[in-house]
Each structure stands twice: as C-alpha cells, then as structure tokens.
Structure to design on (333 residues):
C-alpha cells in the first residue's frame, strides 16, 4: 500500500470513528448506491451549540472522485425549484444515507434530467 | 532552529478533523534520517548536523561520498543536508524520526519549487496586463507596458520585473501546521499545500 492509499483509508476510518462516537448505536455504514437511485441523506445541521438532523431526499445524478474525496450530487425539485446538493460520501456531517428507490439508468451522469418534467424523469428512471 | 528532518512529498488529500471539518493535507514521507556528520564550532567554525535521507546501494554513490558513510558505518543515503544551530545535541549514527515532532507544531518547509519555464509578466509577477482591448491597443493584452522613460535615463533600470524563467528555485513557506504524525509509517501530514512537485525533497524545520 502506498502512503497516499494508507492516508486515504485512514481518513475514511477516522470519519467513521467520528460518526460512531456521535451516533453510538445509531451508526450506519455508508451504503452502496449509484446514479438514478433515490436516496435520503440525513445531514447534521449545526446551529450555534446545537446539532439537529435534516433530511434531503432526491435523485443521485452523479458520483465523482475516489476514496475520501468521493462526492455525490443529489437533485430534487422543491416547490417547483430544482435544488442540487453535493455531499462528500464519507463526511461525518452526514448521519446516514438510506436508499429509497433503485433507479435504472445507462448513464454515469444524469445531467439530462435537469430540464425534464417529473413524469418524464419517472419514465427515464424505470 | 529546534528540530529538523528531511522528507519526500507524496501528494495531497483531505482528512476530517475531530469537528468533522475536511482539512486539506500534504502527505510527507519523512525520515528516518541518520545523523551522518556533526560540524562543531571548534573544528568547522559553525555548528550543524548533517542528515541523510533515503538509503541507496553503495554502487549508486561516488567513491568519495561512499567513504564518508563508511567512516561512520551508515548505509549510503541519496540526500545529505546540513542543518545549523539545532537546539538539541545529536550523536553520529543516531536517527531523527518523525516522532520528534508533535501535532500542532508550526514548521518551515523549504524545497525547490515547480519549474514553470519561460513565463510572461502576468503569471510571473502578477502584472495586470495593459488594460484595454480597444482604443488603439492591439496584440498586447498580456504585455508589461512601459519599462521606463526616454532620454533620461536612456536605459532600463536593473531589477525591473520582466518575463523570464519562473519556478525551479529554492522556496520556503513558514508557519505550516503539522496536522498529524504517523510514526509507524514515518509520515507527517502538513496542513495545506507545500511547494514543489511530488517526490521532491523537503526540508522540514521547526524554528
């Protein structure tokens, strides 16, 4: 193992360890998912001293990077406005990722969903 | 100077601190560096230690250098550097390892920066360019502009910043924080970036 791989693995271990100390029994492993899946991300929101969980549900439209630098982009339509958020996959600021629905797509990046109606997106993902 | 070590830049990645914030770090494989020689005030007129780094085969070094290592009974090293006026006293043959440093230390990192070749004034000296695209300006958006006045002094002043070779020079960055130390793999994680390409030799010094 090269030093770079070693530190990358160490970074993931430490991020997991930090989540374990924060969540205790509620700790969940990072699941395997891919583009087109609908997932719910429980994000920690820090407000002053307090911390609470906020859910963000949407379609995964892309994954990029590797190791500790891997991120994924989620898109949802909220009150008619498209919202996209990019999360680091192993971030300790994510409490859990749950897969809501599996999608079936042939692309690695689903940017073409951006201009589509909800009905069309549903057709594309099945 | 308090402590010094030689290392090799491996690359960069990010790591989460105990608050969950992603911190960019540079990975450095540092030491173990054998103390090959000691310069003393009485004998050499200055006090310093000579550190070696990266053991290589004996046929890889020229004979006079091999002799220096043979004399002290240390395997030949690819790199040899002297560090002056260290606070701690060392013995020939002892090893400097990353364990001497502590997390949170502020260090100075010196190395040869990446060579950029012949560069114009905008990249090399952060000039702003000539400034306009119209009003008679043509083909000179990235030019240096005027280099001086006319009949007096009838010459260009020495040291005027112009285009030329950039990078490939010795550079130091001070106050780089040590994010973490991994003694079992001889690694130092430095917060932020460090000059030079990958696999370059770094001198890490705590002033």
């Amino acid at each position: 193992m090269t030093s770079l791989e070693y530190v990358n693995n160490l970074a993931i271990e430490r991020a997991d360890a930090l989540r374990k100390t924060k969540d205790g029994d509620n700790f969940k492993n990072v699941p395997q998912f891919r583009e087109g899946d609908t997932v719910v991300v429980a994000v920690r929101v820090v407000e002053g001293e307090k911390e609470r969980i906020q859910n963000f549900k949407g379609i995964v439209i892309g994954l990029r990077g590797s190791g500790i630098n891997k991120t994924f982009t989620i898109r949802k339509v909220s009150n008619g406005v498209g919202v996209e958020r990019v999360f680091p996959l192993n971030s300790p600021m994510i409490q859990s990722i749950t897969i809501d629905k599996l999608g079936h797509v042939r692309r690695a990046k689903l940017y073409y969903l951006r201009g589509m109606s909800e009905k069309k997106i549903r057709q594309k993902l099945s | 100077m308090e402590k010094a070590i030689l290392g090799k830049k491996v690359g960069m990645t990010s790591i989460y601190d105990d608050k969950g914030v992603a911190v960019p770090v540079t990975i450095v494989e540092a030491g173990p560096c054998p103390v090959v020689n000691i310069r003393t005030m009485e004998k050499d007129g200055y006090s310093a230690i000579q550190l070696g780094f990266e053991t290589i085969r004996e046929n890889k070094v020229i004979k006079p250098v091999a002799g220096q290592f043979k004399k002290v009974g240390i395997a030949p090293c690819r790199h040899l550097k002297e560090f002056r006026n260290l606070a701690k006293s060392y013995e020939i043959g002892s090893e400097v390892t990353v364990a001497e440093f502590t997390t949170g230390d502020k260090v100075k990192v010196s190395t040869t920066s990446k060579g950029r070749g012949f560069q114009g004034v905008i990249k090399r000296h952060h000039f702003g360019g000539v400034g306009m695209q119209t009003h008679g300006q043509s083909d000179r958006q990235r030019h240096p502009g005027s280099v001086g006045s006319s009949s007096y002094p009838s010459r260009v002043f020495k040291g005027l910043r112009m285009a030329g070779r950039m990078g490939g020079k010795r550079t130091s960055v001070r106050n780089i924080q040590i994010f973490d130390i991994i003694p079992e793999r001889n690694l130092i994680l430095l917060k932020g970036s460090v000059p030079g390409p990958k696999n370059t030799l770094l001198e890490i010094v705590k002033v």
Observations:
- The two ends of chain B are 4 Å apart (CA to CA).
- Chain B touches chain A through 16 residues (CB under 8 Å).
